[in-house]
Write a structure and sequence with these properties.
The chain has a domain at 171-295: 3-Layer(aba) Sandwich (Protein Transport Mog1p, Chain A), CATH 3.40.1000. It has six helices and 13 strands. It has helices spanning 32-69, 124-131, 147-152, 165-168, 223-230, 280-289; strands at residues 112-113, 171-178, 181-188, 192-196, 199-203, 209-216, 236-240, 246-250, 255-259, 263-270, 276-277, 291-295, 305-308. The termini are far apart.
């Protein structure tokens, strides 16, 4: 009879060794002394927290007690004051004063004469709007005289000599009173004017204009003395108009004073905001046209002015 073969079990691949005493050294249980030390730390920490809480609570209780015992301060209401009695203001009488004397200014560098295409002494604006001449022809009427020269002497540049500006209708005559005298001057017919106290304002309708003011000279000082008294630091050039009136012209060439003995007339060219002055020859023509035409019988009527059209007269050359 066949006996079965007894097989031996296979050996394990890794032998398992039982743990040794050295490998279990880190698993040693804490000692009793270490446990007591940890407990003390916890007790101290809890005590500190309790002390802090007690301190905060005590501080809050003290502050609350102070707030309850503090007495509020009552501020008395202000006593209303009676309203002051209003006194009626005294009635002021109107004071009539002469206009301030306009100080001559230095002629601005940026302001230049208007365009004069034909170099005849009249700007293109003057020829077109005032005298109705040709800005391309220096002698519109071909009479041998430049248009600007004829206007300066108050002749009509658009007609043959001896036609005058007044006869052509290019200008009108302003006639007014100043203190005790009657005076007059020419101004362009297309311009408007207004009177403000002792000042006449001429408007050229192009942003420019002339201002004429009247100043008294009660002591009848000499013209030069009057100028020195009012303009001690200014420089003037003396001259004479075509009608023989003494004239003082400022350095700006736009401020002129005329001596009418007991009265001083000032003529000021106001260019407004323009950078060109287009009526310089018209300004000179106006100065040459000023003349005294009589005396005022009643000096109280010094504010009366009027526009008249006198008989045409031959201008002086």
């Amino acid at each position: 009879m066949h006996q079965p073969e007894i097989k031996t079990p296979p050996k394990p691949l890794v032998e398992v060794q039982p743990p040794t005493a050295s490998s279990q050294s880190h698993l040693t249980k804490p000692s009793v002394a270490q446990k007591k030390h940890s407990g003390r730390k916890i007790i101290v920490l809890i005590g500190i927290i309790v002390l802090v809480l007690l301190s905060v609570g005590g501080y809050l209780l003290i502050q609350d007690a102070k707030n309850k015992t503090q007495t509020p301060v009552v501020t008395p209401a202000p006593t209303p004051r009676p309203a002051p009695e209003t006194q009626p203001e005294p009635v002021k009488e109107p004071v009539v004063t002469e206009p301030e004397i306009e100080k001559p200014e230095v002629f601005p560098v940026e302001i230049v004469p208007g365009v004069d295409s034909d170099s005849d002494g009249l700007s293109d604006i003057e020829e077109t709007l005032v005298y109705k001449t040709d800005p391309r022809l220096p002698d519109t009427d071909s009479d041998g005289f430049l248009d600007g020269n004829e206007v300066f002497h108050r002749y009509n540049p658009g007609g043959t000599a001896p036609g005058t500006l007044l006869g052509s209708g290019a200008v009108k005559v302003y006639k007014g009173t100043a203190i005790e005298i009657l005076y007059e001057f020419y101004y362009p017919s297309t311009w408007s004017y207004q009177e403000v106290q002792n000042e006449i304002i001429l408007d050229a309708q192009t942003g420019e204009g002339f201002h004429i003011s009247v100043f008294s000279n009660p002591e009848e000082s000499s013209f030069k003395d009057w100028i020195k008294q009012n303009f001690p630091t200014s420089t003037f050039v003396s001259g004479v108009t075509k009608n023989g009136l003494p004239m003082m012209q400022g350095e700006d060439q736009r401020t002129v004073y005329l001596d009418l003995t007991s009265v001083i007339l000032s003529f000021v060219y106001d260019p407004g905001i323009k950078t060109r002055v287009d009526y310089l020859q018209t300004f000179q023509m106006m100065l040459n046209s000023v003349q005294v035409v009589g005396a005022v019988e009643n000096s109280e009527t010094t504010s009366e002015t009027s526009i008249v059209q006198p008989e045409e007269s031959e201008p002086a050359l």
